[in-house]
TrEMBL record:
The keyword Repeat does not apply. It comes from the Bacteria. Coiled coil: none annotated. Keywords: DNA-binding, Phosphoprotein, Transcription, Transcription regulation, Two-component regulatory system. This is DNA-binding response regulator, OmpR family, contains REC and winged-helix (WHTH) domain.
Length: 224
């Protein structure tokens, strides 16, 4: 899962990133309005953490841009502006949550988890389809009660496919999801093929039906 941290206090942004990376999120940064607009325009994120007091303007303008572009990213405002009016304005403009500074990183991580679970997985902690069972809190996958030993990236790919089931996902989108903006500098997508090949092999060996389809020339689709 990919997170955009829009925060001009670099030490706080780095602390958030370090904590969330340990929770197996991929984090990117924007430290001012210009960078925030650029990131929002070019890339997709599972969740955006948005400070309101940014160099160059008000973070609420970024929120308005996110909604104007009909982005599907969840948005959690993180701000020292903790008045009721600020919270009401942010939520009315489309933010999913509002967390006043200072906050505990564990609480922020819990809110991110809750937001992604609600938006992508019907608010369930455990996802079932046929014999496949994914425990989101435990980050584990079983097929017919047999544990499937996925790597971090294989697990992330599986969640990404399931949250976009029956949609064709391009190789570019997969590369961006796994590598963030670094995907722009890649010469090829060979590592994507390797991760998907290993994911399919492990699921098949565990007895899972072939839900993950190759759409030749376009990408991949989790078909249910």
């Amino acid at each position: 899962m990919k997170i955009l941290i829009i925060e001009d206090e670099r030490s706080l942004a780095q602390s958030i990133s370090t904590y969330l990376t340990d929770e197996q999120y991929l984090c990117e940064f924007a430290v001012n309005m210009e960078e925030a607009y650029e990131k929002v325009d070019l890339y997709e994120y599972d969740c955006i953490l948005l400070d309101l007091m940014l160099a160059g303007g008000d973070g609420l303008k970024v929120l308005e841009e996110i909604k104007a572009q009909n982005k599907q990213s969840g948005v959690i405002i993180i701000s020292a502006r903790d008045s009721v009016d600020d919270k009401i304005t942010g939520l009315r403009l489309g933010a999913d949550d509002y967390l006043a500074k200072p906050f505990h990183l564990s609480e922020l991580a819990a809110r991110i988890y809750s937001l992604i679970r609600r938006r992508n997985f019907g608010n369930d902690d455990v996802i079932h389809f046929d014999d496949v069972r994914i425990n989101l809190q435990g980050k584990s996958v079983t097929v017919a009660d047999q544990l499937v030993p996925l790597t971090r990236r294989e697990y992330d790919l599986l969640l990404y496919f399931i949250s976009n089931k029956n949609k064709v996902i391009s190789k570019n989108a997969l590369a961006e999801h796994l590598s963030g903006d670094m995907a722009d500098a890649l010469d090829n997508f060979n590592y994507i093929y390797v991760h998907i090949k290993n994911l399919k092999r492990k699921l098949t060996e565990a007895g899972c039906d072939n839900y993950l389809k190759t759409m030749y020339g376009t990408g991949y689709k989790w078909e249910m």
